[in-house]
Design brief:
The complex is a heterodimer. Chain A is mainly alpha-helical. Chain A has a single domain, classed as Arp2/3 complex 21 kDa subunit ARPC3 (Orthogonal Bundle). Helices cover 76% and strands 3% of the residues of chain A. Chain A has 9 helices and 2 strands; from the N terminus they run ααββααααααα. Chain A has helices at residues 10-34, 39-54, 71-78, 81-99, 107-133, 135-160, 166-199, 205-209, 212-220, and strands at 58-61, 64-66. A two-stranded antiparallel ribbon of chain A has the order 1-2. Chain A starts with 9 loop residues before the first helix and ends with a helix. Residues 210-221 of chain A have low confidence and may be disordered. Chain B is an all-alpha fold. Chain B has a domain at 3-31 and 60-97. Chain B is built from 4 helices and no strands. The longest helix of chain B is centred in the C-terminal third of the chain and has 30 residues, at 71-100. The model of chain B has no long low-confidence stretch (mean pLDDT 89). Classes of the chains: A mainly alpha, B mainly alpha. Chains A and B meet through helix 1, helix 2, strand 1, strand 2 and helix 4 of A and helix 1, helix 2 and helix 4 of B. Chain A: Pfam families: CbiM. Chain A: It is a multi-pass membrane protein. Chain A: It is found in: Cell membrane.
């Protein structure tokens, strides 16, 4: 879903940067407030893993492929969507400047779609589902919905940019990302979150930040 | 929960990330991603080739996760370099912000 420079006119790309900037600043404020000696290694390990797994495009049929984004995964581990925004911003910076994956002018839009929208939708869907469905299914559902909504927003941006027609753009982006979201995002997020819940339940969400009692119960439920 | 076991998490994370870096060039699908596929289907040929020929705002040193003339080993190296760069940047960022707190 990395938008290259040529897909959005410069004036619109600047607007997405302006919208993304407060989110980037808030993610840095989250880091200043929440990061400590114990969380920094986890953040770095997740960021590196997400960069590597984003390089692995999964075939989804129709001559199309897709890869994981990972904002929801990070947000769930840290119990905050701001963590997802932060990690995706760092990953996109390296992808854009070193590898030409996603444009520099369009990086604001990419941070907005993949970091903010997929992170926030993914995390709050997870939080909403968790009590009724348990950790694994909530992680799957959140990650899946997060990348789907991000692709819908991306299709609208492409329409505003004059790059895609609206309805065919929505259908194409929506269809592809429903499938990418299933394997590339949903399944991988659910597997990783379930593995962490089993091996290091203390890392997951609430207990990692506040309210340790509550999370313990949910992990074992 | 203590610092030591989180360092273990870090080492496990680095190991998994580097393993993915090595595997990615061999396992990754060469098919275009969702956005590129949509572009291929929705934009008419001449406009699409114009868009694709437009130079990026900044020329990346390792475009498309490859190093010129090095083939698959260059791709492995490029992704591994990227993985370690992300690791170093996020670790450094975390340390700096942590100290300021």
């Amino acid at each position: 879903m990395h938008i290259p420079d040529s897909f959005i006119p410069l004036n619109q790309a600047v607007i997405y940067w302006v919208i993304a900037l407060p989110f980037i600043i808030m993610s840095m404020r989250w880091a200043r407030k929440e990061l400590d000696e114990m969380k920094v290694p986890i953040l770095a390990a997740l960021a590196a893993g997400i960069f590597a797994i984003q390089a692995m495009n999964i075939p989804i049929g129709m001559g199309t492929s897709g890869h994981m984004v990972g904002a929801a995964l990070v947000a769930i581990v840290f119990g905050s969507p701001w963590a997802g925004v932060l990690v995706i911003t760092l990953v996109l910076l390296v992808q854009g400047f070193a590898f030409g994956d996603g444009g520099i002018t369009t990086m604001g839009a990419n941070i907005l779609n993949m970091g903010v929208i997929s992170g926030f939708v993914g995390y709050y869907t997870y939080v909403t589902l968790r009590k009724s469905t348990g950790t694994s299914i909530a992680a799957f559902g959140g990650a899946w919905l997060g990348i789907f909504i991000a692709s819908i927003v991306c299709a609208v941006q492409m329409w505003l940019a004059g790059t895609f027609p609206l309805i065919p753009g929505l259908i194409a982006m929506g269809t592809y990302h429903l499938i990418i979201g299933f394997v590339g995002e949903g399944l991988i997020t659910a597997v990783v979150i379930t593995a962490i819940a089993k091996s290091r339940p203390d890392l997951l969400e609430d207990s990692f930040t506040v309210r340790p009692e509550k999370s313990k119960k949910e992990v074992h439920a | 929960m203590n610092g030591n076991s989180n360092m273990k998490f870090l080492y496990a994370g680095i190991a998994i990330a580097l393993l993915l870096s090595i595997l990615a060039p061999f396992l990754a699908s060469p098919d275009p991603d969702g956005l590129e596929s949509a572009a291929g289907g929705l934009i008419e040929g001449s406009k699409l080739s114009h868009l694709e020929e437009t130079q990026p705002a900044v020329n990346a040193p390792m475009p498309d996760y490859s190093i010129g003339g090095m083939g698959k080993s260059g791709e492995v190296l490029a992704i591994a370099v990227g993985t370690l760069a992300v690791l170093a940047i996020s670790f450094g960022f975390g340390k700096v912000f942590n100290k300021k707190a």
